[in-house]
Design brief:
heterodimer; A: Alpha-Beta Plaits; 2 domains; four-stranded antiparallel β-sheet; 10 helices; elongated; B: 278 residues; Rossmann fold; six-stranded mixed β-sheet; disordered N terminus
């Protein structure tokens, strides 16, 4: 068993280098395909993070009556916080509301006219952040019947549209990734098939001198794995090299996104190594099988 | 029906082979060569063990063409047989049946006691190790040296390195290529390439060497050289079955000749020429 393993691996190594042109062409294709896959995976991850970021912005804002008791307000806030749909509840007092308004005006470069007003016209409010924008109606409906609430700001239509768009974009992203995956699968397996086809004579000689199927198959399978691992190593090298300048360029963008660089690089590493090895092995297995079934 | 009338004795052999207590390696009355007995007028019992038996073999390809039709053939151990016939007569199909590249549509093909039709797929490699195959186009691997090409046949059948080295040396010496062992096929002449292929066919000590037009790509002088080599191998006790177009060689050697025409055996005689005598 051990000697068979040794035989297969040494034959795979020999086969790889004695047919260097074909092997390197297959490795190059493998590398490009893995980069394509990894690239789309990263874009998809950023894309999903952007969607989540936008969805997090959806919340229910309820204006409160003036002069309500703090106890009543705290009671409502406690009940809201206990709801599974609610991520957080924030109280904006009248003063804070005015402060924000002034900052917004200043940011837009417009004159602040509120200082001419005798009293603060802005209501205090509760800002409820939701876990999912789909729950907007439920939470808004509950708030509307609370006595402390004067009015729930209606953004129902906007929320519906947003949910529609993000659902569409998510589905589209998954489909796109699936299509890219299928293309990569097809191209890599065909490349390996060509490499094996180039050695049909070797396989035929092996069959004729009485090599068993295992002795014919496994060297090719290991060779496929070698092509996959080598392609994965080169791809990861390119990705690591590109990560530094790319992240410096996108640092501002990524900072606001709830994106976990650590988990993404772990996923991409697993994806590239797994897909590379898997495609190499499957490609070789399928290609050699054609010659063994007789 | 065959002019040689070997059909009756064939069924005797097969009955013997199929009976439960039959020893496949026991000498069997093959009744061959009936052609000879008919010619010289006295009975002849061949006590040699048959290494190859075809009984009433028909091979029909999916397109409906009969490549072989009712073929009966017994080759005893140590025989040297020429298989002759025009292109498309069925020589290649016959060879394919022997190495179990194809299965017979009807009839039985038995090689060294193994019935090809009943052989499980995983046992096919074991049967092929009893056969040495030589082709017209040599089928050497261009990326391997002469020595590696010969050793390849043993490596891929799981032979230990310890046993490969002496076997390869012996095969190299037998075909006279010890000096060229480290060269690549493209550095060799056609004759040397075919000798390499013969060494590869011999390295695992086959019972039978099947040569498909081994001199087809070689000029007459080199062809003779290859034939001398095959005769020497035959003298060492290896059965040789050689398909050929080369009328000069067949006629000159006066060995057993099996002639195929349109898938049928039309002649099977010892000491025959390429063309029917008379």
């Amino acid at each position: 068993m051990l000697s068979f393993l040794f035989f297969s691996i040494s034959r795979a190594w020999q086969g790889f280098w004695r047919n260097a042109a074909m092997s390197l062409a297959a490795t190059a294709t493998m590398t490009l395909m893995l980069l394509l896959l990894a690239g789309f995976w990263i874009i998809q991850a950023g894309f999903l993070a952007s969607l989540t970021y936008v969805e997090d912005k959806v919340g229910v804002v309820a204006d409160l009556h003036d002069n309500i008791k703090d106890a009543d307000r705290l009671d409502v806030m406690a009940r809201l916080s206990a709801m599974p749909e609610v991520r957080s509840v924030e109280y904006i007092s009248k003063d804070e509301a005015l402060q924000r308004y002034r900052e917004e005006r200043a940011a837009q470069g417009q004159d602040d006219l509120t200082s001419f007003l005798p009293t603060n016209p802005l209501p205090a409010s509760l800002e409820v952040k939701l876990r999912k924008p789909e729950d907007y109606r439920t939470v808004a409906g509950l708030l509307e019947i609370e006595p402390v609430v004067a009015k729930v700001q209606n953004i129902e239509d906007t929320t519906d549209r947003l949910v529609q768009i993000t659902t569409f974009l998510r589905t589209f992203g998954v489909l796109l990734l699936a299509v890219i995956g299928a293309i990569v699968l097809f191209i890599v397996i065909n490349t390996i098939r060509l490499a094996v086809l180039g050695r049909a004579e070797e396989i035929e000689v092996m069959r004729l001198v009485g090599a068993s199927d295992a002795f014919i198959r496994w060297p090719f399978v290991f060779e496929g794995a070698l092509v996959g691992l080598l392609g994965a190593a080169i791809s990861l090298g390119v990705l690591v090299g590109a990560a530094e300048p790319l992240s410096r360029f996108m640092v501002g963008f990524f900072q606001i996104l709830p994106i976990n660089v650590g988990s993404i690089s772990r996923d991409v590493t697993l994806l590239v190594v797994g897909a590379g090895t898997g495609l190499g092995v499957v490609g070789a297995w399928v290609s050699v099988r054609t010659y063994l079934i007789r | 029906m065959l002019p040689t009338g070997t059909g009756a004795s064939l069924s005797t052999i097969l009955t013997a082979l199929r009976s439960p207590d039959a020893r496949l390696d026991a000498p069997v009355d093959t009744g061959h060569p009936a052609g000879l007995s008919a010619a010289n007028g006295y009975g002849f019992v061949d006590t040699r063990r048959p290494v190859l038996v075809l009984n009433d073999v028909t091979k029909t390809y999916p397109n409906g063409r009969d490549a072989l039709k009712d073929v009966d053939l017994v080759v005893p151990e140590g025989d040297f047989v020429f298989l002759v016939g025009a292109s498309g007569a069925g020589k290649s199909t016959l060879m394919k049946l022997l190495i179990r590249d194809e299965l017979a549509t009807q009839g039985t093909v038995i090689l060294d006691g193994d019935d090809m039709a009943r052989l499980p797929r995983r046992k096919v490699p074991m049967v092929r190790r009893k056969i040495g195959i030589v082709f017209q186009d040599f089928k050497l691997l261009p990326t391997k040296t002469v020595r590696e090409n010969i050793a390849f046949a043993l490596e891929v059948t799981g032979t230990s390195r310890r046993r490969i080295r002496p076997a390869v040396e012996r095969a190299l010496a037998l075909v006279g290529l010890t000096a060229q062992a480290e060269q690549y096929p493209k550095q060799l002449s056609g004759g040397e390439q075919q000798r390499t292929a013969i060494a590869r066919a011999l390295v695992h000590d086959p019972k039978i060497v099947i040569a498909d037009e081994p001199t087809g790509n070689l000029d007459p002088l080199i062809s003779w050289e290859i034939l001398q080599l095959l005769l020497r191998i035959n003298e060492l006790g290896v059965t040789v079955l050689m398909a050929t177009h080369d009328a000069d060689i067949v006629t000159a050697l006066r060995k057993r000749v099996v002639a195929l025409e349109e898938g049928r055996v039309i002649r099977d005689e010892i000491g025959g020429g390429y063309h029917r005598a008379g």
